[in-house]
Structures are given as C-alpha cells and as structure tokens.
Amino acid sequence: MNIENFKPSWKQFLQHNSSVDISQDEILGIIDNHSKESLQLVPERIFRNAAIFCFLITFCQNC
Amino acid sequence: MGGSDKLLFIEMLKEHQGIINSICRIYYRDEEDFKDARQDVILQLWKSLPTFRSESKMSTWIYKVTLNTILAKISKEKKMPLSESLSDAYPYYNQAGNFEPDVDLQQLLYLIHKMEEIDKAIMILHLEGYSHKEIAGTLKLTATNISTRISRIKIRLKETFKNI
After folding, report:
1. So where are chain A's domains?
2. Count of CB atoms within 10 A of residue A44's CB?
3. Count H helices, E strands: chain A?
4. Nearest to B19 among A5, A7, A14 (CB)
5. Model ipTM?
6. What 3-state class would DSSP assign to B155?
7. A33: nearest CA in chain B?
C-alpha cells in the first residue's frame, strides 16, 4: 500500500465535505459576536489603565 | 472591517468550505465538537484575514490557519480522540448525509484516526500535494522533521494494512 494511492480518496472526502454548507447566518453570527465582545473590552481596558495610572500618580510620585 | 469585507469573507469561506469541513471532521467526530471547532476556525480566519498576503494561494492560507487553530485547540483540551477499529473511524461520515465511503476512503480514515494529531496534519498536507518544505512552513516545524515523520507514516501504513 502506497501513501500516494490515497490521494483520490482524499479528493473524494474533500468533495463530499464541500457540499456541507456553512450558512451565511452562521458566519455573520460568529464574526458579529466577536466584534461586539471586542467593543465591550475597550471601556474595560480604558478603566483599568486609568485606575493604574491614578494609583501610580497618587502613591508612587517619590519612587 | 466593513460590510464589503464581510461579504468577501463569506464568499471566500463558501468557496473553501470543503477544506474547513474536512479538517474539522478528521479531528472531531462528535457533531457538536465538530461545530465548535468549525466556529473557532471561522473566527480565527476572520481575525487573521488582515495578515493574508495575496502572493500565497488562498487555499494554502486556509489550510495553515485551520490546522494551526485545531492543533492549538486540541493542545488546550488535551483531547485524543483515537479510533480502535475500522468501523469506529468513520461513523460520523455517514451522519453528514447518505454518502457511503468506498473501501479506499474507509482505509484512509482508519489510518488517519490512528495517527498522532500532528501526523494527521502532515498527512492531510501531503495528500494535498504540498512539499516537505511547504508543510514545514505551515506547521512551524523543520523540513527534516517532516521527512522523518512521513517516513514513519509510510512504515506504519505498510504495517497497518499487512494486519488487515
């Protein structure tokens, strides 16, 4: 048995799986959720960085 | 990224959905796990889209992102879904439709399911006709490592089908 003999079988597997549809709604759902999650993280990051900055300004001025 | 990017992305995924579905099916037989993996792959492809360079083929880039996403996911989960018998190797395949794989495809699926996760990725890329150097670049390994692993796969292939 030669590994190269399996190439047509792999093509057959690919072809079959090409007919399994990834719907437009599924794709949009995934990327839109990601965009929303990313946007939610922005204010959190700003708040955290502002808190660290205030702490450093208040307590570490003479360090 | 805007609305036109999303439409282009959808078009690109539709064109190459065979690659994404095939790789996810090779690694995940359970339908829910398969869908989770495919979702992770689609998200990673979307996030990596700005890094796609048009000098390489779109299908090559999709293989690279998909395989590396799945390998990273498996490494996090520490999941090793190994099949013990020929019938265990392909029941998911019938779930996807009424398609009955022929004997060669059953043997190929059996062989792949007996492999280590990284060897499965190497086998897929080898069957796609990529050179050892290209496989090494895709999976971030050395070409020597790929050659050694392919030699081992060939030996295992002979041993496996000697026993059937």
Report:
1. 32-63
2. 9
3. 2, 0
4. A14
5. 0.82
6. helix
7. B43
Contact B46/A at CB under 8 A? yes
Task: Spell out the CATH class of B1-81.
Answer: mainly alpha
Tell me the Cα Rg of chain A.
Answer: 26
The one-letter code for the residue type at B159 is E
Kindly indicate the confidence band of residue A35, based on its pLDDT and cuts at 50, 70 and 90. confident
The answer to whether residue A30 scores a pLDDT higher than 90 is yes
pLDDT tens figures, B4-62: 889 999 999 999 999 999 999 999 989 999 999 999 999 999 999 988 877 789 999 99
Interval A20-40 mean pLDDT: 87
Provide the pLDDT for residue B83.
46
Pairwise CA distance, residues B145 & B81, whole Å: 24
Specify whether the CB–CB gap between B116 and B26 falls below 8 A: no
The domain spans of chain B are: 1-81
Non-local CB neighbours of B138 within 8 Å, separated by 6+ positions: B60, B63, B64, B67, B68, B125, B130
pLDDT for the residue numbered A28 = 94
Which residues of chain B are within 8 Å of residue A20 when distances are taken between CB atoms?
17, 21, 96-97
Q: What angle do CA A9, B151, B126 make, to 5 degrees?
A: 35
